[in-house]
User: Fold LysR family transcriptional regulator from Sulfitobacter porphyrae.
Amino acid sequence: MKHHQLLALDAVVATGTFRGAAERLNKSQSAISHTIRQLEDELELKLLSRDTYRPTLTAEGRVFYREAIRVLTEMRELNATAARLRAHEEPELRLAVSATLPLDLLLPVLADLGKSFPATHLRLSTEMMGGPIARLMEGRADVAIATLDGVPLEEVETRPLAVVHIRPVACRALAERLGPGTLPLSVLQAIPQIVVSGTAGPDDSQSRDLLPGARRWTVSDFAAKKQVILSGLGWGGMPDHLIRQEIADGSLRPIAVDGFSPRRSEIFAMRRRESSPGPVANALWKWVSDRNATL
Assistant:
């Protein structure tokens, strides 16, 4: 029994097809099939039923797979430990952070990291929508900080980090024109809802908090969104920490929309399970874990 055989079995089960496993492991479909056959022959067990389009675990396969997952997890942890033991301070730490996160939360730990690891270059990118997780899974970020929307949880470790509230707002003049109380959807459908585009690619767009049947204008980031809303050209949801001053001076006002109450958005730190973090990334992860322990 070999490590690569267990990886192939896990990939078939996780993706549901031999083709999906081949793409995940960057191998040919025939190589994956051969590897699974080899494993079954060595074990003298049929692990996968091939009677349908999608291979499924047999009764024996389900028992074996549970133990295989445990072994693979231990192997990943062992490889990560070995990598940490031989690691030196990494030249660069790449963070992909959701634009909904208050950056003030991270600045103290980033300052400490800068003092403790002066040779490491910090690369911080602020991303929209699915941008942080896309960077993480593509290997362009060491740590992502975002919501768990669309996250392949079997491939990443997560730690809770913050809670952000996002509420619908309009400028003072528009809010006064709309009037007090809860606004029916029909009233707002004629007014553009300002939304932000994602940074994960051309297909990444806002999918939550969308008013059905409404006109929409799309902007690139929250700074542009706030400016458009302040101008009175539309309304939209904004994180509390980005509009605190405008709410205080009255230039922006919360509006109550039928079916669109303020949303509580949970933010998590994430890293890939198979990663081999260096001392700087580990120091950041320890801070996140310690902070979580005190919440």
About this structure: The CA atoms of residues 102 and 176 lie 29 Å apart. Residues 3-86 form a domain with the Arc Repressor Mutant, subunit A fold (CATH 1.10.10.10).
